[in-house]
Every structure is written in structure tokens, then in C-alpha cells.
Amino acid sequence: MTHTDSALPRAPDSEFEDHEALGEDYALTPAFVEKVVDAADDGDGLRLRGLLEDLHPADVADLMGFLTAEHRMVVVQWLPPDLLADTLPELDDGIREEVLERVPHLTLAEALQELDSDDAAAVVEEMEDDQRERVLAAMPEVDRAAIESSLGYEEESAGRLMQREFMAAPQFWNVGDTIDHVRAQGEELPELFFDIYVVDPLNRPIGGVPISRLLRSARAVPLSELMEPVNEITVDQDQEEVAYIFEKYHLISAPVVDAAGRLVGQVTVDDIVNIIQEENREDILRLAGVADEDRGSSVVEIVRGRVPWLAINLGTAVLGAAVISFFEATIEQIVALAVLMPIVSAIGGNAGTQALTVTVRALATRELNSSNAVRTFWRELIVGLANGLILAPLIGVAAGLWAQDVAIGLVIGTAMVLNLLIAATVGVLTPITLSKLKFDPAVSSAVFVTATTDFFGFLIFLGLATIVLL
Amino acid sequence: MTHTDSALPRAPDSEFEDHEALGEDYALTPAFVEKVVDAADDGDGLRLRGLLEDLHPADVADLMGFLTAEHRMVVVQWLPPDLLADTLPELDDGIREEVLERVPHLTLAEALQELDSDDAAAVVEEMEDDQRERVLAAMPEVDRAAIESSLGYEEESAGRLMQREFMAAPQFWNVGDTIDHVRAQGEELPELFFDIYVVDPLNRPIGGVPISRLLRSARAVPLSELMEPVNEITVDQDQEEVAYIFEKYHLISAPVVDAAGRLVGQVTVDDIVNIIQEENREDILRLAGVADEDRGSSVVEIVRGRVPWLAINLGTAVLGAAVISFFEATIEQIVALAVLMPIVSAIGGNAGTQALTVTVRALATRELNSSNAVRTFWRELIVGLANGLILAPLIGVAAGLWAQDVAIGLVIGTAMVLNLLIAATVGVLTPITLSKLKFDPAVSSAVFVTATTDFFGFLIFLGLATIVLL
Lengths: 470, 470
Description:
2 copies of one chain form a homodimer. Chain A is mainly alpha-helical.
């Protein structure tokens, strides 16, 4: 998204604000949402427009998330066209898809012309094929070409992410030349930019000058004296990698080059913030076994995203049940074992999930690689042992007292220590292995870890009990 | 952190790079880490310094995370002082604490003078009281005052986060006045800035001018014509709220004002990226029951952070066991129930965690409030019912066939549907309730949700079985 605002446009106590859309926490107030719902129910278009027209596009997108699909459609009808345009890139995927289906293609074509190339492309890529064709056909050649070329890059690549508008200067210019050029060419340049990219005669970036540095230098200073080393993003780089580079080096903007090293665009930090949030959202949801879903997802889409994981879990739970059934004879003799066995598996599952989550997070932030993998593994194993030695006496004594049988206490305590060691092992090794095999370590790790701790929890506890108690 | 780099300083194929510290993915290579470890083991200080001196501070911090505590201390000894200074704010908390303990206070005092006030304060706040006093005493008055004033604000507030260096201009200036001032005052200004804040005679911000807009305007244009509405962050605002505002409105920088509305500092987006990552990290770890820990945490610290949650879980598991023990007589008669009961609780726990995670995430991104809470709840309930109606026949038929008893199939199927409805209910209501009560919805939600689904899973399954089968 490139309509970066350098200043905060609407806010609770701003003099520019004429109604109370936002609460003190800068989120839309339920009272405001209520007003919009009322106006939509009454079909009161003028009142709706009055409520909507002063909102920031980000707040309109937010509002849409709070509404039902029916109310969203009424709101879309009454949104001023330029506000609709700015709102489209801000919407949740599911809601954008729904909105795109309802807006006439000529309105869309007009709206998209208002956007920077990266935002327009991000919207167009969500369209169905026939709609995309009709919308693009209704746009001026130059805008269409920019969008088509952007869509030519892979999804989630720097090519898709970049904006084609940037400020470049030849290496022999000085500060004065550059400022004069910016003043003359103002309209061609992006609305906001943060760095000037210095290029060689083949249009390859050789350095960057932050514009605050340009501003503080005398007109006669050559750019080559001000520039710092710059390292290019390539068009085919994955957006997650781009985000990592921005985050690590605290970048505000970076030049994007094609395969020949020529400057073709730039990525700015505001896009990166979105990507970081997106990647974090994916990680946290995947760990819980939830496919991507948002407020615009239908119940069918949500169920389709969640049931497979539950079904796999059902399969692993059956595996756990199979272990138990193997010991049916033991349980028949000592029913207390049936009472106690879920304790062993539950704590194992929780400890495994702790180790797993820490490991997944460390992999995602690249804090874990082969330099420290072995050390991390040993550390988790020691943590598992320590957890076990702390918790086992608790449950051992409690179970022994309850069952009036010291042996049962010893069995459950021992089983717990062993299962916590297994939890630490699978908790660390599962995501590391998935990552080595180039799979997303967050996906399906959790199901495997809890399946393993259930399986071994039952096996060790009931197995030990069979040996010791019978 | 305000030593924002506008360009990427070191990278794999950069001409400025003279050794292969970074891999293609911009992360340190295990081979480079190995070289550092070897040099540290050999006590070869010159070689160490050669390896380290060209690294970006972010990469030094990264390197420290991959080393053992012993190797870290050797590296710290050989880091050039200015690189040490820039590295301090980049370190993981646990590692920074450890490094601070080992560096002489005069070295620290010198290092801190190199940093912007917010970075220096962030480092000083980690020190033990007596070290802090000695380090501050060794610093020049002006630097000490800046740090002390920063530490006067609450932790995690905008006051802590802001840098005191910014560029402000009176409202009657034009573009030319502003550029001339920047050129003259260059040294006083922050190294990088992105917006010029226009202030009234009482030093209250009345607007902001992105410097790219300044650059493209003629010298005679008054700032008042260029400025956009700006909304201030107040010094006591929580950093999470500041991050939300930046993210929502795609801000690059924002002015910070004191209680009287006077401009006292600015927050820049690069700090926000760190905060977003920190908050996400907290959420994901807390959902798994892990207190804050990082690569610098000792085993004791890690165990101390994880055992409480496991202990609580042990308590809830005992509660589940109590339910089972209530049905001991039933299990004695039909041992198959002991085999099947963990299936009902496991699937309930997983479905509950799915609903919980989605809800926690929606609360964190403020996508869920009282406007859509009821709708969200109903949606999850319908999803839970749908999940149940899909999965219950599977397990019902399988269990019925295995036990050679249709009634057992019916009981487990019914129990599963009911437990999935309970899972949806607690999965949504637990985080919403915690959030209403101003608790962090991520903390301890998971333990409560799985405790509930275990409890009711056992209760419904064994209860139904007792009624139907006996």
C-alpha cells in the first residue's frame, strides 16, 4: 500500500473530525457502527454518506469488517467513488472479494486509476478472470500496462509488492540538480518517497540518499558524496524475505531491481508492516490448525479450513485409543489407571506445545539455524527433565494417596518424567525437520506433537503399570 | 531504535562486503558463526576483530544469539566500542542483560553517548540500579539528563519510545526558510527524519509536512499550504496503541506531545516494526503458556516461566480425572469407554483452541468488539455444530464397529457434537471475557479452554454411557 500518510488524518479529538467515529483507542466505536447499521436499515443514503465521507479509508475497511454482508452492500453503494478506491486495498481478503463481485466494472476501472500500481494490482489479482478482463479493458492503456506487468510477477514476490514510482538520480548530479528535478517533475514522482536512488548509466542502483540528508546538504554537494551503500531487492525475492531485511536493518525504503540489475521499483516500509502482520497471523493460526480465514469468510469456508485438521486429529486420537485398548486387560484389573492416564498425556501435550511454539517462533525470526540447533535441543531436553522432576513428585504423591498405593504414585511420576522428555524431543525436532524439508514448520506440527505425547503418554504409563502393578 | 538505515548496508553480493557472513537469505551463515567460534576458542583477538568489524550491528546482535554465553563474552571484548554501542539496542533482552554485566561502566558510558536518546534509555533501563548510577554519573550532563527524562516516563509508553530529536518549524515559514534552517542546523537534527512538524507559538503541532512534499515545492510556498492534519501521540499512550495507529494509517513518523500539548519528541515507524514483532511474539508464546523467554534465557529462567502453566494444567487435569473417577463403576463394566473417552476430549480441545486462537487474534487486531461479538459467537457455534455433524458419524461408526455395539457409536457421536458446541462457546467467550475485564486474552485462555473441554468431554461421554448403556 503506498498511500502512506505521514500524518494522522482523523482522530478522536482532531479539529478535522466532525463526528465521533473513533473511540479513545482509535478503533471505531460500537455506537458509530450502530449508527451506520441504522442508516443502512432505513435505506437512508444521504445520512449514510454523511457518516462515511469523512472517514479514513482504513476506518471504512474496519467498518466493513464489523458489518454483515447485507449491510456492507448498502454501504458500498453509498461510498464516494474515490473513497471506495482507497478502501479497496485496505479490506480483508474475504470482504474485498465480496465487494468486488457487487461493484460495476466501470466503477472499478475508474477507482483503480486512482491507486498506485501496487495497490491496483493487489485489487485486480483478487478478481475473477472475466471481471478482470472487463475492468482492465475499461482502463487507460498506461494504467492497464502497469497492472498487467505487476501481475506478471509471482504472488508474494517483491515484484508484486513494489511500486513502480520512485525517485532516481544519475551519479553525477549534485543536491541542487536533484532538488530542481524533483520540483520540475513533481507530478511523475510518487506522492511520498524517502530515499533517492543513485543510478549508473545502465540504470543500476549504486547508492541511496535519504532525503533528510539531501535536505541538510548544500546545493553544490555531489550525490556521490552523500550516498550510502544500498542493497537491492530483486523482483523475484519472496515478500517474507523482503520483510526480514527491512526489519533487520530498520529500512524505510529499498530499490527493487530486475534480473539485469536495473532499477524497476521500490518497496516502502508501510507495505512491510502489513506483511509482517500477515505472516504473524498465518503462524499463529496455523499453529492452532486454522487455515486462513477472516471476518469475510463464510461458515462453509471456515469449516472447510478447520475440519481437515480436526479429522487428522481424530485419526491420531484413534491411534492413542488403540494403545489404550492394548492394555484393556490391565485397566479391567485396576480401573484407577483409566482415571489417571489422561493426566500423563495432557501434561505431555502441553509441554510439547510449549517447546514447539518457542521453536516455531525462533525459526520464523531466523533465530534458530544449524549453528544453535543442537544446543537448543539439549536445552529443551534439560528443561523437559526439570519440568518433570518438579511436577512428577506432585502428581506421584497425589495419585499414590488417592489410590492408596505407593506403586501407582511411582508409576505415574516416572511416566510423567519420561513423557516430558519425549515432549521436549518432538517439540523441538518436529518443526526443525519440517523446516529442513522446506515445509512451513507451523503447519501440522501441533497435531504431530500432541499425537506423539498422547501415544507415548498412554504407552509408558499403562506399560509401566502392567509391568509393575500386575 | 532510531539509527534507521535508509539503505541496506551489508549484504551477500555487496561490493562493500569482504567476507561471507551472510547467506542468500540475509541471515548469518552457520559457516561464519563457526569461524567466530573458532577464533574465540583460539583466543585470536585480531582475527575476531577482523571478522566482526564490518558487520552491521543487527548482524552482531544476531551472531550473539547463536553463540554460547562464554563465546559471547570473548566477542564482546573484541568488538570495536562504537560497534558495541550500536549493537546494544539490537540484542535480545536476556543477552543484553548478560553483556551489560560484563562491560566496564566507563566503556558503557562512552558507548551510550553515541546513541539516540531513546536507544540509550532502552539500554540503561535494563541495568541494575548501582550500575545505572555509575554509568549515568560517568556521562556528560546533557546526555544524562535526556536519558533520565526518558526513564521518567512509564515503561512501554510513547514517552519511552520517542526520540527527542525532531524537526519542527513555525507556521509562518515557507519552504525556503525551512530548507535553509535544516542546512544551518544540520547537526542538531536527528540523523534521519521524514516529516516536518509545523508548530504554533506555544510549540503545539498544528500539522505535518512530509519532506518529499517539501522537496517538490517551490521555495516561496508557505508550509501552511503544504501541511496535512496531524494527530499527536501523547507521552503516556501505550506503545501497543501507538503501533496500532501507525499500522492502521500507514504512518512513517508522528509527533509526541506532553500533557500540555507541546511537541516533545517523535516516534518513527522503525520502532513500531519492533513493537509489532514483540507484541506478536508475546501473543503466540502466551497462547502456548510460555512466559517471555529468548535465546539468552537460562534453563532456570525458562523452567520458571513454563512450570507454572504446566502446574495449573496439572490441576485441571486432576479435575478431569475426578470426573472420570466418578464413573469408575461404569468403566469397570465397559472398559471400552476408557479406550474411547480421550478421543472425545482431544477433539474438543483442538476445536476449542481453534476458536480461541481466531478470537484472540481478532481481539489483538481490534477486529472484534461489541459491534460483532454476538455475531462472532453465533458463527463459531454454527461452525462447531457443523464440525460435529461431519466428525461424529466418522467416529460413531468406527467406535460402533470396533465395540460391536451400535449404542456405543451413538453415545460417542452425540458426546462429540455436544463437546464441540462447548468448545466453540468457551473458545469465543473466554478471551472476550478476559478482554472485557482488561486482562490479556492470550494469557491462560488456552488452559481454561482445554480444561473445560476435557471436563465436559469426559462428563458428557461417560454420563451418556451410564444412562444409555447400563
